Structure formats: C-alpha cells, structure tokens
C-alpha cells in the first residue's frame, strides 16, 4: 500500500512539473513561429515597395521575436532535460526513436534559428537588404522546422510507426522514413503552425489597435491592424478547416476512446451521434449536465454520414479511457469554441476594414486589443487535448505513463524542483511582460533598445 | 557505430565548452575584475552577443546523447536529478542577467543583473567541473545496499553529498572533496579562457591587467593539475592504464599540456588569438584526456555487483545509429558553416562594432 501511494505521488508530481513547464514554455514558441512568417512578409514587402514603414515593422517585430526567443531557449532546455530527469524509463525505452527527431531538431532547426536571428538583428548594414531578407527567411525556416521535428516526435507518441519492440521492452527504429510519413504528422503539424500564426496575428493586430486607440504611431497602428486581421482571418479558417477537421478524423480513427471522451459521448447512440456544444461532464452519473447538443452533426462532420454510429465511452474498458475526462472535454471544447469566435471576430474586422470604417470603430478596436490572450489559451488547450487525450499512455496503446517515470527520483525531490520552477517562472513571466511592454510602448520608430 | 557517435558527442561537448566556456569565464572575470561601468558593459556584451548560439551546442549534445545512448541519458539524468535541475536554474539566471542589464539605464538594475550573470557563471562552471568529477569517480549503480540492488542495474540516485564528503566507498555524493577539486580546476580553466576572450574581443581598460591574471591563474592550474593526478590514485587503483595500454591516446594529455604551457607565454604573444587558442587546447585536452582514461566506460560503478556503463551497453540499435550517421554528417557540416558565417560577420572588437545598441 505504502509503495503504491509512493508511486502515485511520483507520477502526479512528474506530470504536474512537465505540464507546468511545457505550458509556460509554449507561450513563447507559439508566438515566434507565427511571427517569423509575418516578419518575412514585412521585410519582403519592404523590398518590393521601398516604404520604410515595412522595414521598421519587420525590425520592430524581430525585437519582440528576440525576447520571446530568449525565453523560449531558457524554458526549452528544461524540457529536453526533463525527458531524462523525470521520464528516464520512457527515455530509455523510446530514445532510440524519438531521440532521432529531437536530436534533428537541435541540429537542423535550433541552430538555424539562433545563428540567423543574431545576424538579422545585428547585420542589416553589413549584409544589404536582400541578404537581410534571406536571414529573416532562415529564421522562419528554423522555427517551423523546429515545430516539425517536435510534432514528428509527438506524432510517434500518438500513433507509433516504424518501430519494433525488443525482448527487453525497448523500442528500436526499423524504418526511419516512416517517422516522417506518419499519417498523424502532417495534419497535426499544419494545425499547430497555423494556430501559431493565429496567435501572432492577434498579437500584431492588438498592438495595432493599441496604437490607433492611443492615436500614436498611427501609420504603424493601421499597418499592424490590417496585416494582423488578414493573416488572422486566413489562419483562423485554416486552423478549423481543413487542418482541425483532419486531426479530429485522425483521433476518431486511431484513438476512438479519446474521441468519445473529448466529445463527451458517454453512451453510444443507435445511429448518428450528436455534437455537444455546452455542458459539464458528470463522472458520477456518466452523463453531461446542462447539455446543449445538436443531433447527428458529429457523425456527419466525422464521417460525412448523418447516421454513422460513433462508439461512446461505454464501449471501452475503464483502463483504456483517458484518466482525466473532464479536463480533456473542457480543453477540447474551449479550443473549438475559441477557434469559432476567432473566425467571427476576424471576419467582422475584415468586413469593416474592407468598408474602410475599422479605424474609427473604437468598440471593435478595444475588442481586438483585448482578444490577444485567447489564441494563447486556445493553443494551450489544443495541446492539452493531444496530451490528455493520449492518456493513460505515453506511447499510444504500447507504453503506459506510469511505466515511463524515473524509478529513482522520489516525489519529494520532484516537488522541490517544481516549486523552484514555479517561483523562477513567475519572475521570468514578470520580466518578460515588462520587456515586451516597453518595446511596444516605445513603438517601431525608435531604433535603439 | 557506437564509437563514431561517442566521438561525435565528445566533439560537440568540447565545442560547447570552448564556446559557452568563454562566456562562462567572461562571467567569472566580470564578477571579480570589472569595476568601471564602461568595462562592465563591454565585457557583458562580449558574452551577451553570443551566449544563445553557444548554448545550442549543449542542446545538440543532449539530443545526440539521447538518440545514440538512451540508456545512459536516462540513467545519468535521473541519477543526477537535483544538480541537473539546479544547473538549469543557473542557466536561466545567467541568461536573463545578460539579456536584461542594458534594458533600463539605472545603476541598481544593472548591478542586480551583473551579479546574476557573474554568480551564475561561477556556480555553473563549478557544477560542470563537479559533474565531470562525478563521471570520473563513478556512482553506486543499481543503488546497492548490503549486496542487494534497489533498482535496475543501470539506475542510481545520488544525494548532493554524503556525511563525510568522501569520494571513496560505494556511497558517494555529488559533492565530495575529489569532485570539488575538479570543479575548482574547471573554474580556473574557464576564468583563463574567459579572460582571453575578453582580451580578444574587447578594448576594455583591464586587458593588460587580465594578462597577468591569466598568468597567475595558469600557475594555479598547473599546481592543481599535478595535485589532481595525485589524488586520482585514491579513487582509482590504476587510473592511467588506458594510456599505457594504448600510447596513441597520449595525444590528449599532450594537447592539454601544450595549451597549459603555451598560456605562460601570454605576455609575449603578438596576436591575442594565440592565447585564446591555448586555453581552448586546455579545455579540449582536459575533457578528452578524462574521457580517454576511462574508455570505453562512460560511468563507472562503485560497487562490485553491477557493471559500469559503457558505450556498448547503453547504445541504441545499430540501425538507428546508422540512419543517424546519414543526417548527422549533413548536420555537422551545416553547424560548422553557420558557426563560421556567424563568426566572420561578427568578428573584430565588440567596442568598435555598431550593433544598433
């Protein structure tokens, strides 16, 4: 009994620490991945139009990028370390496979990003404009490649391919290219990348709204609003259709238990599953409280067949179902709900931009300014869907989370380091806000920092 | 293939300690010798412009270790749990120290982040040295107690110290008098290296003074090296048998010694890059000599029950290592190209560069 309690504590703190540190870490890359694309756009636009404002915009956002990148580096190294420190058994068993993609991330993308970021910031005069655009593009390439390798790693955990399991339980690679042709990978990668473009578009638009409302840096305020709204509208749609749709279909196909849990289907219906819009999972009575649902839609969206039966949670054994169904259900519904609101908000803004009324519509501008935290929430909950949905497994169907932790690290030690991370990251978060706030307040025309 | 990846990871680690080593050392020198604001600023910049691309080498070393020797990665990272996480915290404090000092222009703000940078650099260097000491000394693999393993044979957990701070016996802690000596050697080495970097990259007013600091530190390093060779015998009966069996390995200690004695010429060198090269040789020679003395062991066992970890019993499958060989070669070429491009474009003295600051 005592030993089991010990194990439970170890798993709990290991998971909590990973969840906390990865959630905090992902604040930064989700902005930089999207922002790098927009910086390349601004710089490219400058080369075409020779209007100084585009160049200043590119350099201004690269400054914000740099602060985020630094935060991403210092909070990212702990992620790599934690595979070994807290998830030693997982690393030992699967390192031969996910070590490949993680090492490739370091070699091919991280280096590209960090080397050329420094050159972009410091080397404009040295290199000339075309090379400067090229360094910006390489930063973008590095940050997206980084996302690609991380998603390849995660895709393997969600849907393992190209492996064999040895007698001692170790997973070894037997087909390298399968890691990259994994059917899970491309939809997840595109969904994730365009979701990060949503975040950066909302941030760019919010800064624009801030300038326009303050009636300061008006030229830039309008430019940022326009660019942010167009990028934001297009990316919000791509995140939903086709990429979000592909991912949902993948979950339904490869992780049916997860699909039932995230949609909140407790009981299998005879024909045609309803889609639940609002409601709270009641785990005692195994039903959704205060439910608002639309019949047959889920079957149609998933299989283009109004009457296709979708297995509910009653079809699966308890130990195959995710271990925190309400958290998974809420994460999924928050993500989808916010995603829908993003399309609406950006669609509305785009309409008034087109009618040339946007810059005087204060209420809408205030809404855009305060909307920027929500893509962060949607991105984070999206990852919660992926990670909670994969439970109780680390490698879906093959390796349970409980079997992946470090056998020798006690819960007391993990709690100690978790508390340290919480304190340190609070400080980091404060400093980050001060720095980014200062940069935004000063505006794009001050070139020194 | 195991041997290939072992050598590659050793190279990446050596490059990491040369590159990030100079900005660690710069931090230590900054802490003790930079007094005027102008010097403080330029010395912090000599580290601040480069630290993040240098630290990527650590990430790559970690990634490659994970890929090629997953059992080792799992064992060492969980076994040294506390010191590794504390290393992470210092890495964060160091980085924010460097990034934040120039953000606001008032003295208290700068002083706080200078201290954060300097103290973290010092303690990190000490910890990296202690880590090397631990790898040389070995650990109680399997957590053996009264002849019985508490864990699987390749797992362990080390306390930060044991009651006697003694490196002998089967229950060592992370910090004992042997690993402390190696830690101090690391601090002295990287201080020399950092001072050489400052002399190379800046026109700070303490450059001349730093040359005599390097000279004095180098005397200390020589004495410490002799001392460490002496105490090595206490923890290992025949620490240098690898060198007598394979005389070719003696190249590594020779690299170390050539760097060490070369550094004594610091005041006579016509170009400052020579001194920096010498301290780089000390770092490369020091790391490779330590590794070569153990080869093929990468973590010795302090008990008789569980065998030491070697590159052969911790590596992944041959297929994985071979596939990685393909992309690894491409990756390494790219790494060195980036490094050269960056160093070319950002060469010269920091003071004279216009970085838009």
Element layout with pairings:
The complex is a heterodimer of chains A (449) and B (357).
Chain A: H1 2-25, H2 27-49, H3 52-85, H4 88-122, H5 124-127, H6 129-158, E1 163-165, E2 171-173, H7 178-181, H8 185-214, H9 218-254, H10 256-263, E3 275-282, E4 287-294, H11 297-303, H12 325-354, H13 362-370, H14 373-390, E5 393-395, E6 399-400, H15 411-442
Antiparallel strand pairs in A: 1-2, 3-4, 5-6
Chain B: H1 2-33, H2 37-48, H3 51-68, H4 70-79, H5 81-100, H6 107-137, H7 177-201, H8 207-235, H9 241-245, H10 251-263, H11 272-294, E1 297-299, E2 309-310, H12 311-314, H13 318-345
Antiparallel strand pairs in B: 1-2
Helix pairs in contact in B: 1-2, 1-3, 1-6, 1-7, 1-11, 3-4, 5-6, 6-7, 7-8, 7-11, 10-11
Provide structural commentary.
By secondary structure, chain A is mainly alpha-helical. Chain A contains 15 helices and six strands. In chain A, the strands form three sheets. Chain A has a two-stranded antiparallel sheet with strand order 1-2. In chain A, strands 3-4 form a two-stranded antiparallel sheet. Chain A has a two-stranded antiparallel sheet with strand order 5-6. In chain A, a hairpin with a 5-residue loop joins strand 1 (about 165) and strand 2 (about 170-175). In chain A, helix 4 (about 90-120) packs antiparallel against helix 6 (about 130-160), helix 9 crosses helix 10 and helix 12 (about 325-355) runs antiparallel to helix 14. Chain A is globular. The mean pLDDT of chain A is about 95. By secondary structure, chain B is an all-alpha fold. Chain B has 13 helices and two strands. Chain B has helices spanning about 1-35, 35-50, 50-70, 70-80, 80-100, 105-135, 175-200, 205-235, 240-245, 250-265, 270-295, 310-315, 320-345; strands spanning about 295-300, 310. A two-stranded antiparallel sheet of chain B has the order 1-2. Chains A and B meet through helix 3, helix 4, helix 5 and helix 15 of A and helix 3, helix 4, helix 5 and helix 13 of B.
């Amino acid at each position: 009994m005592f030993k089991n309690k010990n194990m439970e504590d170890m798993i709990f703190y290991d998971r909590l620490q990973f969840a906390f540190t990865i959630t905090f870490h992902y604040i930064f890359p989700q902005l930089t991945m999207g922002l790098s694309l927009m910086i390349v756009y601004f710089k490219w636009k400058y080369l075409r139009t020779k209007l100084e404002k585009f160049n200043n915009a590119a350099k201004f956002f690269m400054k914000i990028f740099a602060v985020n990148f630094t935060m991403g580096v210092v909070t990212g190294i702990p992620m790599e370390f934690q595979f070994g420190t807290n998830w030693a058994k997982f690393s030992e068993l699967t390192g031969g496979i996910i070590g490949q993609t993680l090492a490739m991330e370091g070699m091919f993308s991280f280096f590209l990003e960090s080397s050329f970021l420094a050159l972009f910031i410091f080397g404009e005069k040295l290199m000339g404009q075309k090379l400067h655009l090229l360094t910006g593009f390489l930063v973008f390439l590095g940050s997206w490649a980084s996302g690609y390798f991380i998603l390849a790693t995660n895709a393997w955990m969600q849907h393992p391919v190209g492996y064999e399991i040895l007698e001692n339980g170790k997973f070894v690679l037997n087909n390298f290219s399968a890691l990259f042709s994994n059917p899970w990978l491309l939809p997840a990668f595109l969904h994730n990348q365009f979701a990060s473009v949503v975040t950066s578009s909302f941030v760019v638009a919010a800064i624009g709204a801030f300038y326009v409302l303050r009636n300061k840096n008006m030229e830039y305020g309008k430019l940022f609003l326009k660019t942010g709204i167009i990028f934001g509208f297009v990316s919000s749609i791509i995140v939903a259709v086709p990429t979000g749709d592909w991912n949902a279909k993948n979950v339904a196909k490869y992780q049916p238990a997860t699909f039932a849990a995230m949609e909140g289907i407790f009981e299998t219906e005879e024909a045609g599953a309803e889609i639940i819009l609002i409601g709270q999972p009641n785990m005692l009575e195994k039903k959704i409280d205060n439910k608002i649902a639309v019949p047959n839609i889920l079957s149609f969206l998933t299989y283009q067949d109004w009457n296709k039966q979708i297995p509910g949670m009653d079809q699966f054994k308890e130990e195959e179902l995710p271990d925190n169904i309400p958290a998974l259900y809420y994460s999924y519904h928050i993500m989808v709900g916010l995603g829908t609101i993003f399309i609406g908000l950006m669609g509305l803004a785009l309409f008034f931009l087109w009618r040339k009324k946007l810059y005087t519509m204060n209420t809408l501008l205030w809404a855009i300014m305060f909307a920027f935290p929500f893509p962060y929430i949607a991105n984070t909950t999206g990852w919660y869907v992926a990670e909670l949905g994969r439970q109780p497994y680390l490698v879906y169907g093959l390796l349970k989370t409980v079997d992946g932790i470090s056998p020798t690290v006690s819960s007391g030690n993990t709690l100690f380091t978790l508390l340290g991370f919480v304190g340190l990251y609070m400080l980091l978060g404060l400093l980050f806000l001060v720095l980014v706030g200062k940069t935004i307040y000063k505006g794009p025309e001050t070139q020194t920092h | 293939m195991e041997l290939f990846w072992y050598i590659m990871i050793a190279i990446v680690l050596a490059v990491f300690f040369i590159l990030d080593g100079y900005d660690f050392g710069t931090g230590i020198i900054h802490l003790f010798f930079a007094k005027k604001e102008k010097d403080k600023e330029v010395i912090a910049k000599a580290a601040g412009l480069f630290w993040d691309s240098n630290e990527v080498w650590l990430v790559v070393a970690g990634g490659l270790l994970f890929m090629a020797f997953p059992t080792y990665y799992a064992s060492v990272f969980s076994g040294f749990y506390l010191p590794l996480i504390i290393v992470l915290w210092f890495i964060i404090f160091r980085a924010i120290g460097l990034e934040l000092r120039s953000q606001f222009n008032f003295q208290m703000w700068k002083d706080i982040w200078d201290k954060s940078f300097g103290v973290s650099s010092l303690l990190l260097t000490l910890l990296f040295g202690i880590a090397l000491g631990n790898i040389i000394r070995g650990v109680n693999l399997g957590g053996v107690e009264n002849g019985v393993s508490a864990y699987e044979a390749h797992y362990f957990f080390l306390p930060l110290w044991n009651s006697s701070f003694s490196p002998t016996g089967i229950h060592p802690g992370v910090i004992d008098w042997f690993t402390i000596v190696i830690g101090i050697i690391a601090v002295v080495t990287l201080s020399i290296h950092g001072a050489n970097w400052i002399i190379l990259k800046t026109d700070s007013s303490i450059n001349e003074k730093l040359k005599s600091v390097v000279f004095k530190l180098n005397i200390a390093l020589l004495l410490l090296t002799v001392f460490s060779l002496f105490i090595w015998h206490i923890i290992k009966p025949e620490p240098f048998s690898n060198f007598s069996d394979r005389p070719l390995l003696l190249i590594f200690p020779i690299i170390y010694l050539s760097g060490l004695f070369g550094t004594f010429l610091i005041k006579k060198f016509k170009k400052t890059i020579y001194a920096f090269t010498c301290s780089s040789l000390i770092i490369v020679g020091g790391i490779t000599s330590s590794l070569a003395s153990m080869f093929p062991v990468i973590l010795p066992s302090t008990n008789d029950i569980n065998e030491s970890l070697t590159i052969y019993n911790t590596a992944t499958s041959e297929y994985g290592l071979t596939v990685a060989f393909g992309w690894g070669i491409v990756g390494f070429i790219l790494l060195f190209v980036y490094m050269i491009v960056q160093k070319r474009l950002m060469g010269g003295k920091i003071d004279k560069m216009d970085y838009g600051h």
